[in-house]
Amino acid sequence: MGIDMLRCGIKRFAAMFCGVVLSGSMLCSCGLLPTEEEFDTAPVIKDYEGNNYNKYTVTRGSMVQKEFISVYYQGTARMEVKGGGIGVQIKRYRVKMGQKVEVGDVLMEDYLPDQEKIIRDSEREMEKMQLQIRQAEEMKKRELQKLKRLKGSKEQEKSISSQYDSQIQNAKSSMALLRLDIKAAKEELDVNTVPAEINGKIVELDRSFEGGFATENDVVMVIEGKKRNRFRAKTEYASHFKNGEEVIITVGGQQYKATAKKTANKKIVYFYPNAELSLKSGAAGSIDLILKEKKDVLYLPAALVYDMGEKKIVYVEGENGIKSIREVKVGERIDNLIEITDGLQENEQVITN
C-alpha cells in the first residue's frame, strides 16, 4: 500500500510539473511574460566559401585629385591665332600684314549666321514699330483736331487719346524687347572675336582662310613681339591659380620653378620662370594641378564600399574563408577613393570580388 501511495505521489508531481512548463510556454508565446529584445543580425554571404578572394589592402596616405595642365614656352613673345574648330567660319580679319597691334585689339571675328540674322530681323522690326508709332501719333493728333472742330465732348477726347496711346505703348514695349534681343546677339558676336594677347606685329597672315573655315590646328595669323621668358597655358582650370603662386613645370624630364600670373582672359594664365631659360619657343611642358587633397587618412576605392540601408559596409574574409560584412564609417570622397574613418585598420584587407 505504501508503494502504491508513492507511485500516486510521483504521478501527481509529474502532472503538475508538465502543467507549469506548458503554462509558462503559453504565457511567453502570448506575450504575457517579459522576453529579451531581439536585433537583426547581419547576413553572412558564402559565395565562395573555402576559396581565395581578390583583396585590397587598406592604405594610409594622401588622397589627391590632380589635373594635368599643358603649358608651352614662349621665348620671343609670339601669338599664333588658330581656327575656331569644326563648323566655325571666319567672317573677316580686322588686321593687315605688318600691322602693329596692342593687347585687346580685335584680330578677326567668326561668322555666326543665327546671331546676325537676329540682329537684322530685329532691326527691321524696330523700323516698323517706329513707323507705327509715328503714324499713331499723327492719327491721334488729327482725330483730336477734328473732334475740336466738331466741338466734341471730353469723354470723346479721352476715348481717342486712350485708343492711340495704347497702340503707341504696345509698340514701345515691343521695341524694348527687340533691343534686348539685339543686345544679346551682339554680345554673342563679341565673344566670338579674337583679341590680341600681346603687343607686337603681324608677321604672318593667311588670307586663304578669310570667309572660310579653319580648324583648331590651322594657324591663320601670327603676332610677334618682344622677347619673352614665360610659359602659356590655356585651360578651364586657369581660375585655380593665384597671382604670385609658385608652381613646378616639367619639360622633357627637367623641372623648373615658375610664378603664375593671371590674364584678363579667364582661360589663359602665364607662368614666369625664376631664371632665364634657353628653351626653344613652343617647347611643351606640364603642371600637376592639385584640385583637392587630404593627407594621412585611411582610404579605399569607393567601389568597394556598399550601401546597406543607412549603413556603409565592406566585405572581409571571416572564419573558414567565409565572406562576411563589416560596417564602416566614411569621410570625404576624392576622385575614386573614399576616406575610412572607422571600422577598419591600416593593412587590413577588403574583398574586391
Describe the model.
The protein has helices at residues 2-30, 113-149, 154-191; strands at residues 55-57, 59-82, 89-93, 100-101, 106-111, 193-195, 200-205, 219-234, 246-251, 254-262, 268-273, 284-301, 306-308, 311-317, 323-334, 337-342, 349-351. The protein is α+β, with helices and mostly antiparallel strands. It is built from three helices and 17 strands. 29% of the residues lie in helices and 38% in strands. Strands 2, 4, 7, 8, 9, 10, 11, 12, 13, 14, 15 and 16 form a twelve-stranded antiparallel sheet that branches. A three-stranded antiparallel sheet has the order 3-5-6. Strands 1-17 form a two-stranded antiparallel sheet. The model is unreliable at 1-11 and 13-43 (pLDDT under 50). A hairpin with a 5-residue loop joins β10 and β11. The two termini are 77 Å apart. The radius of gyration is 41 Å and the shape is flat.
